[in-house]
Write a structure and sequence with these properties.
- The protein is an alpha+beta fold and about 800 residues long.
- About 35% of the residues lie in helices and about 20% in strands.
- It has 25 helices and 28 strands.
- The chain has an eleven-stranded mixed β-sheet with strand order 1-28-2-3-6-7-8-9-18-19-23, with helices on one face. Strands 4, 5, 24, 25, 26 and 27 form a six-stranded antiparallel β-sheet that branches. A four-stranded mixed β-sheet has the order 16-17-10-21, with no helix packed on it.
- Strand 2 and strand 3 form a beta hairpin.
Length: about 800
């Protein structure tokens, strides 16, 4: 029956009505029924959406009110400012640590969960079979077992703080009306936090910061003539800017007989170099960028012995305490030391029994270990692993021999909570004494104290090698090579109160001599970034926090300047004749070059691309025998290549030229042509290919990586950003400054801070993106939180 708009029944159509009228009437009826169905479906979707929205809202963190929680010994207050940065006011350090755990769980529990599951090899239980290959690799290291061992070795004081933190985490998780939103989408339930899980987060940092590069070096040295291998893997170069010693000159190209990873910056200025007399520490830790950021800002305050105490800086969700910042008397910052803390050991099989291997005390059986990997929505997977006395078997070399991994992370003292002691040090001397005891990935630590003193050392455990230098895999069978425990504290390199009042590190080689032997070479980067920072500091007589921020944001392209000059000399009228691509390339390099890695520069992108394509072709030709001998060989793991590549491009030894080419000019011009071809293959003009187009932020949430449709809701804006890897303002689409900090201990109110994304990991929180725009623009924003906007009061419950 048709229905009028008034809702009254309509007369049935007359049988004698024209067919067009009858069809129109029938279609109106169908359309109305369809509309009703659509409205009903829309209503259901709206209701479902409201239910989902309500569930998501229920999983938001608690920002205000009064809450009873078990595990707290006295009331504590959490205030948040307009950026969501919390200030915890507690009676004791233990209660402040409990409150920090509560905040971490409320704002970042899913991030914490991934951080414990990744090293433990337990991702598949959460997200399904796609993670099984990763879990299988992770299980080789038995980090869950090692975490339990580390927990058993914890001091009573560290265990007390850890228990407080874990209690806070689980209280924060229980205080949410619904689980964190990621679990609602995954239809999973979060598992409570255990004390051993915090050690797993430390192991996750080992995975993030340590990289094995011996295999590629070993293949290179075993395959190429020694002089050529030495030339392609120099131990230094003209760009070196160490704290101790001078540059190592790279070897020259051998006679006829035979992209760098970006990282972190930190530096310190002594009090006599500062305008107000207070020593300054600047730190920007460059890591992979995701949503939420790896760090969580916090201020923790309590009373100790009747005196007020305060920690200001960044924390790591999953771990108690402050990672980088200031305790009011000492401020500190980290960069990856690029120390060599991984060795590959050639495992020699017993000729009489392939299930055994040769060891210093005689043949031993390969230990076999079965790991059961839980998989969401599928049967469990089983992986069989092999272990030796040196470590797990991780692969084979080019000759098919097994390789075992010896890694500081595997040692009983490789992970501990000694870093918590930085909260209590009062001088740089106390900080230096603590550094060798900390179980963490080795880092360059620069620190300053309230008396104006500064110092540098390496914090974290270092191995004491004997019989070899650790650059390539070797056999330890005869007992003449190996590790003799950890490096003694008195052998750690350090610089204290340098006469010039300046310290700097940027993942470069920092030392020479015995200090370099102690550190080894874990993949030091070219010193161009460190040199630019050093020279920037030396240009300052007296500085303040804003002066140091300007150095952190320095995007001058000093490193590529000589490559631009080389290109302009190369692209002569004869070289560009008959090639419109080369002619346009030269014009853009000449005119669209600001001398910076700026978003609008086409010239910067072209020069950078040319250098990388030249390396790709030249190194590809020279190392072709290595790739043939070892399918896993890559030139990316060979370390810094600037000096060898520059020597080839300028000295042009004919015996090292690819024989398919007539001259080195042809080799360089081919790299120009490759750059043009790759940038124009999609039909867009070369003049439109700015650096900003290439260097556009892609800072994503883990869930949007799996479900891209969620990106609009979960990811950060895709904004073109200045900066690059070989200058202080390190930036790539998904890697850059995970924080920027400048602080003077005792003068924290004058400090500056940036952090990408926001404090909260919940997309409905007002603090999910708050502060991100200031990070993008490099605005001078304060280190300390602003006035309180929210107040949450926690009280002991039963």
């Amino acid at each position: 029956m048709a229905v009028h708009e008034t809702g009254e029944p309509a007369d049935e159509p007359d049988d004698q009505a024209p067919s067009s009228v009858r069809r129109s009437t029938r279609w109106r009826a169908v359309a109305r029924r369809l509309l009703l169905a659509i409205l009903a479906l829309a209503g259901l979707l709206i209701v479902a959406g409201l239910v989902v929205y309500g569930q998501l809202r229920a999983s938001l963190p608690r920002l205000s009110g009064d809450l009873l929680v078990r595990g707290l010994t006295a009331p504590a207050t959490v205030t948040r400012d307009s950026l969501g940065v919390p200030t915890v006011a507690a009676g004791t350090w233990r209660d402040a640590t409990f409150a920090l755990g509560f905040l971490h769980a409320q704002e970042r529990f899913f991030q914490m969960d991934l951080s414990r599951r990744q090293p433990a090899g337990e991702l598949a239980a959460l997200i399904g079979g796609a993670a099984v290959p990763w879990d299988s690799l992770a299980r080789r290291h038995a980090f869950r077992t090692r975490a339990r061992t580390a927990l058993a070795r914890a001091t009573a004081a560290d265990r007390d703080l850890l228990d407080a933190y874990v209690g806070g985490v689980n209280a924060g998780l229980a205080a949410q009306r619904r689980p964190p939103f990621e679990y609602l989408l995954l239809r999973q339930k979060p598992a409570s936090w255990r004390p051993e899980d915090s050690y797993l987060v430390l192991f996750a940092m080992y995975n993030l910061l340590n990289e094995e590069n011996e295999s590629a070096r070993g293949t290179l040295e075993a395959t190429l003539p020694p002089a050529l291998a030495d030339f392609l893997t120099p131990r230094g170069g003209a760009w070196d800017a160490p704290l101790i010693g001078g540059p190592f000159m790279a070897p020259p190209p051998p006679g006829p007989a035979v992209e760098e990873p970006p990282g972190s910056n930190n530096w310190a200025l002594a009090g006599f170099r500062a305008r107000d007399g207070g020593a300054l520490v600047a730190n920007d830790m460059h890591l992979g960028l995701g949503v939420p950021d790896i760090w969580y800002r916090a201020v923790l305050t309590w009373s100790q012995g009747g005196a007020p105490r305060r920690l200001v800086g960044v924390t790591l969700p999953g771990v108690p305490g402050l990672i980088v910042g200031s305790n009011g008397r000492v401020a500190w910052g980290f960069t990856n030391a690029m120390a060599d803390v991984i060795d590959l050991v050639v495992v020699e099989s017993d000729p009489a029994d392939s299930s055994r291997y040769l060891a210093p005390g005689g043949p031993l059986p390969l230990a076999r270990r079965r790991e059961i990997i839980a998989v969401r929505g599928a049967p469990a997977d089983t992986v069989e692993l092999l272990d030796t006395i040196w470590g797990p078997v991780t692969g084979r070399d080019r000759l098919g021999r097994r390789l075992a991994m010896r890694w500081v992370a595997h040692d009983p003292g490789g992970a501990n909570l000694a870093l918590l002691g930085l909260a209590e040090v009062r001088t740089v001397d106390e900080a230096l004494a603590l550094a060798p005891r900390c179980g963490m990935p080795p880092q360059n630590m620069v620190c300053a104290d309230a008396d104006g003193r500064i110092a540098w050392t390496v914090i974290g455990r270092l191995p004491r090698r004997f019989g070899f230098d650790g650059r390539v895999p070797v056999s330890w069978t005869d007992g003449g090579r190996g590790w003799d425990g950890g490096l003694p504290a008195e052998q750690y390199p350090r610089v204290v109160d340098p006469p010039e009042g300046r310290l700097w590190t940027a993942n470069n080689r920092t030392v020479d001599g015995a200090g370099l032997v102690a550190l080894g070479d874990g993949g030091f980067v070219t010193g161009a970034r460190a040199r630019q920072i050093r020279d920037g500091l030396r240009a300052l007589d007296r500085a303040d926090a804003r002066d140091l921020l300007r150095i952190q944001l320095d995007d001058r392209a000093l490193f590529l300047g000589r490559w631009r000059d080389l290109l302009l000399d190369l692209l002569t009228p004869a070289a560009v004749a008959g090639s419109a691509g080369r002619a346009e390339f030269r014009a853009l390099v000449a005119t669209s070059w600001s001398g910076r890695a700026s978003v609008e520069s086409v010239g910067y992108r072209l020069v950078r691309g040319f250098r990388l394509h030249l390396r790709e072709s030249v190194y590809g030709w020279l190392t072709a025998p290595c790739a043939a001998a070892d399918p896993g060989f890559t030139i990316e793991n060979l370390g810094p290549y600037e000096d060898p590549l520059w020597a080839l491009a300028t000295q042009r030894p004919p015996h090292l030229l690819d024989p398919r080419l007539r001259s080195w000019d042809d080799a360089l011009l081919a790299a120009v042509d490759t750059t043009v071809a790759r940038l124009t293959r999609d039909g867009r003009p070369l003049a439109a290919r700015t650096w900003g187009e290439r260097n556009t932020a892609a800072i994503r949430h883990p869930l949007s990586l799996a479900v891209p449709q969620l990106g609009r809701w979960l990811d950060m804006p895709r904004t073109p950003l200045p900066g690059d890897s070989n200058l202080p303002r390190v930036q790539s689409p998904d890697m850059g400054a995970s924080e920027r900090m400048v602080v003077s201990p005792g003068r924290e109110e004058a400090g500056l801070f940036h952090m990408p994304t926001g404090q909260s990991g919940h997309p409905l929180s007002p603090y999910y993106r708050r502060g991100h725009a200031a990070w993008e623009r490099g605005e001078a924003t304060p280190l300390l939180p602003g006035p309180a906007v929210w107040t949450l009061r926690l009280a002991p419950g039963h």
